[in-house]
Amino acid sequence: MILDAARLAFANLFAAETRAVFWKVIGLTLLALVALWFALRQLFAWLALPWIDALLPGTPEWAGWLTLVVGIFASLGLALGLALLLAPVTAMIAGLFLDDVAEVVEKRDYPGEAPGAPLPLAEAIVSSAKFLGIVILGNMVALFLLLVPGINLIAFFLVNGYLLGREFFEFAAMRHRAPGEARLFRRKHRATVFLAGLVLAAFLAVPVLNLLTPLFAAGMMVHLHKMLSARDPGFAVAGRVAAGTRG
């Protein structure tokens, strides 16, 4: 089921219907990452450089190589910080385009079924903001765990697998269910959703390809929700579409 959902989502990435969304996501993600890079550089220059100058006053010219070493380590640190911020960035981008991607997937692959209803703007903003805080907190924990040999990579996958799986699945489910019901449905199938989240974390770990994470995750979770709903038709459906409401 999970592999089928991933395969269909990957195919949807290159469908003609998703090209407009594709370029929007690519453009906004790149802009966000560039902005974060410059922000981190400025933060380092503001906080760290004065401290280094105070620590090493009157450094002779022959010791100029120290500046190069510090610069290299600073660049590595900034790159690490950017990598850890990649999940929050993709979460923000997904919050903007999830409904667009979901609509394309539903129209293309499920034409005979009732389409989902986009989340109300206020509800989507609150949900995205809450999740953004969770992702940042989770990746701060993962950052500390990077100092512990042997579990740093595991921590990355577990933290991002849980958070990405949870958020993207609930977004997809809330197109067809009330928010409370969507959460209950996710909890009932938490193992499947978590394993799907690990696939998203693996996708997120691939350089360049990870810029497509919002599109891939949105499509995959729409498919997964459809598959789980078909397998579990007895679960109460009091969602916004069935009830004729939009939250």
What does this molecule look like?
- The protein is mostly helical and 247 residues long.
- It has one domain.
- Helix content is 74%, strand content 0%.
- The protein is built from nine helices and no strands.
- It is globular and about 70 Å long.
- This is Putative transmembrane protein.
- GO terms for molecular function: high-affinity sulfate:proton symporter activity.
- It is found in: Membrane.
- Keywords: Amino-acid biosynthesis, Cell inner membrane, Cell membrane, Membrane, Sulfate transport, Transmembrane, Transmembrane helix, Transport.
Please outline the helices and strands.
Elements: H1 2-13, H2 19-55, H3 65-84, H4 86-109, H5 121-145, H6 152-173, H7 179-188, H8 190-204, H9 213-231
